[in-house]
Amino acid sequence: MTCIRLTPGISWGLVFRSLLTITVGLHPVCASAQQSATPFERWVATHALPIATVDSATGVLDLQRVRQVIGSARVVALGEPTHGAHEPLAFRNRLFRYLVDELGFTAIAIESGLPESRLVQDYVAGGPGDARQIVRDNLSWGFGEFQENEALVQWMRQYNADPTHHRKVRFYGMDLSLGGPGGSIPMPIAFDGALSYVARVDSMSAGRLRATFQPLLARMHTAASLSIAEHDALTAAIDDLLSLLERERPAYTEASSAPDYEWGYRNAIAAQQADRMFRLMPRDAPAGVIPPSAWQAMNSRDAAMAENVRWILTQEGPQGRVLVFAHNGHVKNGPTEGGIWSAFEKPATAMGQYLHSALGRDLIIIGTSAAANGPGLPPAIPDSDGVDASLAKVGLPLFLIDLRASSANGAVNEWLLARRSLRANFTTILTVSPRTAFDALMFIDTLTPAHIASTPR
Q1: Any idea what the CATH number is for the domain that residue 236 is in?
Q2: Which segments of 12-89 are extended strands (E)?
Q3: C-alpha to C-alpha distance for 221 and 179, rounded to whole angstroms
Q4: Is 70 exceeded by the pLDDT of residue 33?
Q5: Residue 20 covered by a domain
């Protein structure tokens, strides 16, 4: 097979759109590379599903074969190798459009605070506001800065505005609402959301609870800012809030609405989740250092995210299907270890492990591999025997590979079950057994910086 070389100015996307119009499964891999490749690399070269572009395109021919990977799964978890790269975000947007239009997906849940996402959900449903401001104010962990996230929200609003689309799509965050260094401090958003709801339906109870919460929340600056007795008082107050909501559910629902009650109650759950994680944060950790015991807090966070995804699936109903988008380290069905996470005294359990246990075949996990960093990003050299470098040797800039198809090939399956490095956060790695961690992998040759949106006026 002849090796294709691009003339300057001609994009891979244009080449692949032309190839895919002619045939399905034609891969431009050099014959010399095939001869020197490992069995795994040769297998990928013959099974890879080329993707024309990560950005929005007029055709969906290349994505049609994604249908085979997803099947009837109700939840597709798509990972990104790092936060702040354009290509994973752009591909997420393109994939979600396809999943909605072609496979009936009804919602997307991203790695951002669940309490804040109610306002984004209201906006895509046609509520008031400006997309740029809504995204900037209500996507946590810095994700509100990216144009790609604004584009997602704008498309969802436009889709929902079309009267021919009878089933509207919904937006959720599924993460804890945290701030501070490394997301270590529970923010008052979840508490405020729950108490504001109670105030609408039971002002007396809300006043009593707020008087208990306010002085404690005002002092939560670090893991050691509250004494153990004070933290016990905060936990007890959260328990009281949840008990009240559960006990008065019929009356509160009648006084508001079922969706409003669900969000009010979920805010209280999110407050409880943040409190649990906060209790597990090391109280005396030096700045910039990952303490060995930090795996416990990460366990708590990932368990909470998995619990929130299951709640979202319940909200979507029996016919609901959800795209979950988060870091590879969260979506994978495997423990968190390797690279900077080697500091843990014990590997943390990832969200994907919790979801896999709960959802079984209703879950498909697609990780993302990236071989290189482009201009504006720190240089990185993938491990020569790692996942990223091995996929890069195939010679395709963008493709999807279904790892489940390896089961019939002993040598390939053995390679995929071994512990391998997978690039993460531009300059570090995760250590994974690829076949266990992911059902499929999306390969992106080069990452470039996410597009920073202008500040709203």
Answers
A1: 1.20.1440.30
A2: 49-50, 75-80
A3: 10
A4: no
A5: yes
